Amino acid sequence: MKQLTCEMCGGTDLMKQDGAFVCQNCGMKYSVEEAKKMMIEGTVDVQGTVKVDNTAFVERYLQNARRARQKEDWSETEKYYNMVEQNDPTNIEAIFYSTYGRVKSALLEAETKDKRQGVFNVLAKSVSVIDDNYDDANEEHKKILFEILDDIKGLKAGKIVPTTHLQEYVTKNGYGNIVDRNQVVENDSLDVTYAMIDKVMSAYEESFANIAVVQCEPLTKEDILEKAYDVLLKGYSMFAFYYFKEYAMKNPDSPVGYLGKAVALLALNNYKTSANEVAFASKYAINENDKEDVKRLVGMTASSCRRTLLVNAAAFANYEAAKFLVEAGSEVNFKADGNKTALWHVAADNKFNGDLQNSARKIAKLLLDAGADATVTTTAGVAIYNNKTDAEIASMIRAKFPTLEKGKSSGCYVATAVYGSYDCPQVWTLRRYRDYTLAETWYGRAFIKTYYAISPTLVKWFGHTDWFKNMWKGKLDRMVSKLQANGVESTPYEDKNW
Predict the structure, then answer these.
(1) DSSP codes, 11-25
(2) What is the pLDDT of residue 167?
(3) Is the CB of residue 161 less than 8 Å from the CB of residue 109?
(4) Would you say 14 and 30 are in contact if contact means Cβ atoms under 8 Å apart?
(5) Strand pairing class (2-3; 40-44)
(6) CA-to-CA distance for 346 and 314, rounded, in angstroms?
(7) Average pLDDT per run of 10 along the chain, which is 498 residues long?
(8) CA distances, 259 to each of 63, 119, 211, 263, 322 (Å)
């Protein structure tokens, strides 16, 4: 059985009149040749109901809808996608964009908040049923998933006209007399609309989470990981998060899935949860199969702000996360956003207290032992070593970098490590002895040069340890006492140029 279907209105009541076929519903005329092309096969089910194959019709209107969307003609976008959805109720592109067109129109109109909210609620419901109609074997569906995500995110970047209270308050008696604008335009209008967009995004995330479960069910662990990396590198961090989540479900004793989630969350600006995921990953040993993936993940940075997992762990004073990342090979001196390293985050702000302060101090020692550099200045010119530095961390830094505080090119490295400062009575005494006694003879100068060639390395590796300080403390105390007894002063001192 064959049947003609009007491409304008979808009606099937077409009659031949004056050499042409005329739709009795909308009056659209078709030539005989056009009618032949439009004729589509129908099938009859056991109840005798005619089922029409309207694939060609759907495809034609999809083209019209996409063209309207490209031109940003939102009323036409809504109209054509509605016609597609009427003829193909499972088409996920039409399910979303038929309402998306209406939403875009609503954002460009000074509507009331309630009216705009109603349109967004419809869009959220449309998004929530995408997973019910998604076909993973359909390559077009995979492409549409990316497009929908980009367009939801793009809602905040597009033009948004503020919502209003009831429109009759804008004018009086039709003469255009504007009343108090505070009564008309809501002060929090943009935030209210952003909250609507966030609700749609949440519905989309939930829908994609269900899709990811179905997608990954038949895949091997390696295939899931490949999908995760692929979308992560393309910038679709939300997709990557759910793929890494599925990998973690299938590999509960591997740190890779949790690290992958951490990287994705970091790119999504969810910093604290990202650090927590790394801490969770630290509970599992890295086996041979994990090594390459762990190495790859710990070296990745967030797409938006170049912030490594290690820098992030330090920023939240998460010791277990930081320890795991250092042991896994993270670069301790990586300069992230603002030129800040992991050590800068735990030292320069002195923002932690209680348990977090203890954790920050442990991280500082961990990083210093791993070779962290304290001579870091942010893009704003703020150095790690400043007046806000935590006292205990500052002591560790001075012990390893004894000339850092005053920026000296040479100093009493061992004495500074032992006494905790380059400027204290004991070190002032030793510096005077160096400049006015040792430096006056050739063998004294030779000793100084040898000392400065060896002691910085010794202090860098051992200056923060108790055994090193205890070994030198008694010797230096006796030497300082003898020098002071012989008249070498212990008052503030500026080094001599020699």
Answers:
(1) ---EEEETTEEEETT
(2) 46
(3) yes
(4) yes
(5) antiparallel
(6) 6
(7) 63 75 76 66 42 72 94 94 90 95 91 87 95 92 94 91 58 45 51 92 96 94 96 94 96 96 94 96 94 94 84 96 96 90 88 91 95 82 72 85 55 78 82 85 84 79 82 90 89 68
(8) 42, 38, 22, 6, 12
- Cβ atoms of 172 and 202 within 8 Å: the answer is no
* DSSP one-letter string for 327-375: HTT--TT---GGG--HHHHHHTS----THHHHHHHHHHHHHHHTT--S-
| 278-302 core/surface letters (b: 16 or more CB in 10 A; e: else) | bbbbbebebeeebeebbeebbbbbb
Contact 214, 141 (CB under 8 A): no
Residue identified by tokens 């820098």 is: 311
Burial class of residue 37, CB neighbours in 10 A (0-12, 13-18, 19+): exposed
Cα distance between residue 383 and residue 341, in whole Å: 11
> Exposure pattern of 234-262 as b/e (b: 16+ CB <10 Å)?
eebbbbbbbbbbbbbeebeebbbbbbbbb
Token pair listed for 423: 């400027």
- Structure tokens that stand for 145 in this block: 């998933």
d(CA 385, CA 374): 7
The whole-angstrom distance between residue 313's C-alpha and the CA centroid of its chain comes to 14
Tokens of 99: 């309402």
* Nearby residues of 190 by Cβ (< 8 Å), 6 or more positions away: 160, 162
Structure tokens at 212: 């990811």
